[in-house]
Specification:
The complex is a heterodimer of chains A (about 575) and B (about 400). Chain A has about 575 residues and is an all-alpha fold. Helix content of chain A is about 75%, strand content about 0%. In chain A, helix 18 runs antiparallel to helix 24. Chain B is globular, with a radius of gyration of 25 Å. Classes of the chains: A mainly alpha (about 575), B alpha+beta (about 400).
Chain lengths: ~575, ~400
């Protein structure tokens, strides 16, 4: 009998949307369009590498496999991602536990932690750390020389080293893990932990036997996400690992396309395929692991959890979390600010020589940077709006469409997340820049690529917003005599709007600060901030670079904070 | 009179049927099982009518298909076959491929979750059905305030749903359902989210509203006391089938199956064999002992015709069971038993009796002075017993 209630799925059959309508037709077209934009470049990419002259030719593979740098590059990449990933999973899970279960929780600061990557773009953080901890010229080293150095202790730090690279990667990974694990902790039915405590289990045993098993899938999911993000991240290796002489796969791929002439497309595609295989392997492992065991079902109640009192450990625990926030945002931004105000980068900070020349150069005098600034903001604003609108369309359609279609749409919109920015960027470069599309050097190419790259985030944000609106609210409108259009306008839209605003802010930041695909698809004809930052980095004019990175961070974080504030206003709660 | 004489073809409004507000004809709704294949049939060839100003309660355990049936009438689910008429208008017909969406059906609905829109004020929530149907501004204002006054919430009009209590929210949902005067209101377990005290208040209020405003209602619940309190008639559903329809008294006194008997009022039902059939009485043998059943009492109307030697079921309501410490003078239908458990309920006390391998429940006025472990005599009047068919397990009428 219970089967019937389980099967009854109101939204599916609830016909507040008709079976076939303009709406459905449009949604299907968009879904097909997204599938095309993902699969067509992938197909072109494979064709180009396997059939370079129209017949099967595996010489590109042979050449890459024979290359002397291949072994070290793969080893370096795996070593950095695995060690930093492991560190991040452990640290972030501890942070999540501290914030969700103990009296060391940080309140607002704990809420900010997961959105730090939105406030401070990774490239700004990486450059900030170069300014902070380069051998000799870094501000931290200047400070250490002025303090410990005088005492005869030659203590110095060096970010352009293995340890430095792993450190910055870890800083970058932590919010991704934190976001997933913290929400898993929040969603565990508190009764499970209470029952354990009342059965006589200690805090430690409850954590080990009950809480951790319940959030195990989340931890594996976070590890997978970190691996995907980690293999494709370009900003940190191009800035830091390069200087440390550590060859990383993503940098090698982009260099063979952008720094070599003629571009070594075959080599880039073969390396991209390696990356794809690694990601697919991790994905399969993750599926096996999460499927193997039965995990505690997670209830949606927002009940209160037991708060563990840490006693003397409370402040040390807090200090570590605060230190993390300082390392990812305050310190790098401060370093960027100081360098941007100096005529040239020097370790001695002298406010007397501070000048706004760099800002004048970046924002007004140099056309390429000011144009890039406008392009990035424009692409972020418009692209974010288009992506979130498509996300809502897909979410609403998936909700009303019968099971298989709904699941297919959901799968398609999530597909780009399983590929990496590099894979998609390379695919777009090969598929759309030349004939018959000839989109090379256009903003439209960037726009399309950004939409595809960030469809998963758009779809997750839109789904979260739409699924919060119970079917009964829509059905009530329908039974009250409202047409579908009226139900959409008067009930659904006002209710999902706050969620969409924050989703839009997320997409805005991701698109405006996008680096990987921009490095491939942007140029002097269609410059964007990500491209220009890398360009200036190569030239080594640090003051301009710092001014650009700092002002861009300022603009994006302001918009994110305003949007977050707007979306949290919520409804008239009791 | 056939249906076709009553109703004009679909799409055209027809003078309202003088008797029926809702007419469901041979309705079927099936779902494919998501795992393991096969189908579930939450609505299995159900036909029923709701008259003008009648409250028909769909009663059954969770998963019996009552909510699916209600949602089919609302237009929130599309049935597989059958027909549905509302106010004489054909709103669904599988054969003629007619399916009116909910917003074009003259019904309103009260949801289990209230389904108040959190971004609209109480006033706007209640005004919504009028706005949707394009009423004039002045009319919207006066009718909305009138509806709020009827449920006693006119002072809360500018508040938002998040600011009022659960009971008040359900009153707002009621006002929203009656404001447009659709004449048909569907209730989907409207009281299952409020606490027991508010529930009793609200069910009286729903009844009062229905009699004051005059509307027909289809009311889904799994709570038999709620059903008794609000219903003009009750339709008992089991596994997608309509098992019995009747007034609360009929359903209670003359269940047509052990399923209905057990579901309503928790009857004692145990197997028996017919040993003698006379003109005015029937004698049966059971594990508990022999009993005589009166054939002429109103209680046994509609009883299946028993034949000698037939295997049947005997039904006795707990409150019809008389218990006393000593042996009664009239020994008809009297048997010895042991008090197994005693539960004090205030004015009444409930006993669980061990008798001939069966366990029977008896409800007596408190003060009988029987204790656990005592021996006692059970007596049942021949007029209080009812025979039921043996094969009537769950769901078969």
């Amino acid at each position: 009998m219970a089967m019937i209630t389980d099967l009854r799925d109101p939204g599916r059959d609830g016909s507040w949307l008709p079976r076939i309508s303009i709406f459905d037709g449009f949604s299907m077209t968009v879904a097909v369009g997204i599938v095309f934009l993902i699969l067509y470049p992938a197909a072109i990419m494979l064709y180009r590498v396997f059939f370079p002259q129209g017949s099967l030719d595996l010489s590109a593979f042979g050449m890459v496999l024979a290359a002397p740098w291949l072994g070290p590059t793969l080893f370096n990449t795996v070593a950095v991602v695995v060690s930093a990933g492991a560190l991040a999973v452990v640290t972030a899970s501890i942070f999540a536990w501290l914030n969700e279960r103990t009296d060391a929780r940080l309140g607002t600061l704990g809420d900010i932690l997961p959105i730090i990557p939105l406030l401070v773009p990774a490239v700004a953080m990486a450059i900030g750390w170069i300014f902070l901890a380069s051998p000799g010229a870094g501000f931290i080293n200047g400070f250490l020389a002025a303090t410990f150095g005088r005492l005869g202790i030659p203590l110095q730090v060096n970010v352009t080293s293995w340890a430095g690279v792993i450190f910055v990667y870890t800083l970058y990974f932590i919010p991704y893990v934190y976001l997933i694990v913290a929400s898993a902790f929040r969603n565990v039915d508190p009764a499970l932990e209470e029952a354990s405590r009342l059965s006589g289990a200690s805090t430690w045993m409850t954590l080990r036997k009950i809480s951790l098993p319940a959030i195990k899938p989340a931890i594996f999911g976070a590890a997978l996400l970190v691996a995907i993000v980690g293999f494709s991240v370009y900003s940190i290796p191009v800035v830091i690992a390069n200087r440390a002489g550590i060859d990383i796969l993503s940098v090698r791929i982009l260099r063979s396309l952008t720094f070599e002439y003629p571009p070594r497309t075959d080599q880039a595609v073969v390396l991209t395929l390696f990356m794809l295989v690694v990601v697919a392997a991790i994905w399969l492992v993750q599926r096996r692991v999460t499927r193997a065991g039965r995990f505690a079902t997670i209830g949606g109640k927002s009940a209160r959890h037991i708060v563990v009192e840490l006693g003397p450990w409370k402040w040390p625990a807090r200090a570590i979390m605060i230190a993390y926030v300082v390392c990812t945002s305050v310190l790098p931004l401060l370093a960027l600010l100081i360098v941007s105000l100096q005529p040239f980068w020097q370790v001695n900070i002298n406010p007397a020589v501070f000048t706004l020349d760099n800002y004048y150069n970046v924002l007004i005098r140099r056309p390429i940077t000011s144009v890039a600034f406008q392009h990035s903001l424009g692409l972020g604003l418009v692209g974010g709006f288009v992506a979130i609108s498509l996300g809502v369309l897909m979410a609403v359609y998936a909700k009303s469409a019968p099971g298989v279609v709904g699941r297919t749409i959901d799968g398609v919109t999530k597909l780009p997340a399983a590929l990496s920015h590099i894979v998609i960027g390379v695919g777009f470069l090969l598929a759309f820049s030349g004939p018959p599309f000839n989109l090379s050097g256009t903003l439209f190419l960037l726009f399309l690529c950004y939409i595809v790259l960030h469809m998963p985030e758009a779809s997750i944000a839109a789904n979260a917003a739409v699924s919060q609106v119970g079917d009964d609210l829509l059905e009530a409108s329908s039974v009250a005599g409202a047409s579908q259009g009226r139900t959409f306008r008067k009930v659904l839209l006002p209710l999902v709007l706050p969620g969409l605003v924050s989703g839009w802010a997320l997409l805005f930041v991701l698109m405006a600060g996008e680096l990987t695909a921009s490095a491939l698809l942007a140029g002097t004809r269609n410059p964007v901030v990500g491209f220009v930052i890398l360009d200036i980095w190569e030239q080594g004019t640090f003051g301009t670079l710092a001014a650009l990175a700092f002002s861009f961070t300022l603009v994006t974080s302001t918009i994110v904070l305003i949007a977050t504030r707007l979306s949290r206003r919520g409804f008239h709660a009791r | 009179m056939s249906i076709h004489q009553h109703f004009a073809p679909a799409g055209t409004d027809h003078p309202v049927d003088a008797v029926h507000r809702i007419r469901v004809v041979d309705l079927v709704k099936t779902y494919k099982r998501q795992s393991g294949g096969g189908v579930v049939v939450p609505v299995n060839h159900v036909s029923l009518d709701v008259s003008v100003d009648e409250m028909l309660v769909l009663l059954g355990p969770s998963g019996c298909g009552k909510t699916t049936l209600l949602r089919c009438v609302a237009g929130l689910e599309r049935p597989d076959s059958g027909e549905i008429y509302i106010n004489g208008q054909l709103v669904f017909s599988a054969a003629r491929n007619i399916f009116l969406p909910p917003n074009r059906r003259p019904v309103s609905m009260v949801f289990q979750s209230y389904a108040l829109w959190p971004h609209m004020s109480i006033f706007e929530n209640v005004a919504y059905p009028l706005r949707s149907r394009g009423a004039a501004a002045g009319e919207i204002r006066s009718r909305t305030m009138e509806a709020l006054r009827v449920v006693g919430l006119d002072t809360l009009a500018p508040q938002y749903p998040g600011q009022i209590s659960g009971g008040q929210q359900q009153r707002v949902a009621l006002a929203r359902a009656v404001v447009a005067g659709t004449g048909v209101v569907l209730f989907d377990e409207p009281l299952s989210n409020v606490d027991a005290k508010v529930r009793e208040q609200l069910r009286l209020e729903i009844r009062r509203l229905q009699q004051a405003l005059g509307f027909s209602a289809l009311y889904v619940t799994h709570d038999q006391s709620e059903a008794m309190a609000v219903a003009d008639r009750i339709a008992v559903l089991g596994d997608g089938n309509l098992v019995q329809v009747g007034t609360p008294e009929e359903i209670y006194n003359r269940p047509n199956s052990s399923y209905v008997g057990r579901f309503i009022g928790g009857a004692n039902i145990w197997p028996c064999k017919v040993t003698a059939v006379d003109a005015d009485s029937i004698r049966v043998a059971t594990q508990v002992g022999d009993f005589i059943v009166d054939r002429l009492s109103p209680m046994v109307q509609g009883m299946p015709e028993p034949s000698l030697g037939a295997d049947m079921l005997l039904l006795a309501r707990p409150e019809a069971m008389a218990l006393q410490a000593g042996r009664p003078v009239d020994q008809t239908n009297s048997h010895r038993c042991t008090i197994d458990t005693r539960v004090f309920l205030g004015p009444q006390t409930e006993y669980l009796l061990a008798i001939g391998g069966e366990r029977l429940r008896a409800t007596l006025n408190s003060g009988a002075g029987l204790r656990v472990g005592d021996e006692a005599w059970l007596a049942l009047s021949p007029q209080s017993l009812r025979l039921l068919p043996r094969d009537a397990a769950a769901g078969v009428a």
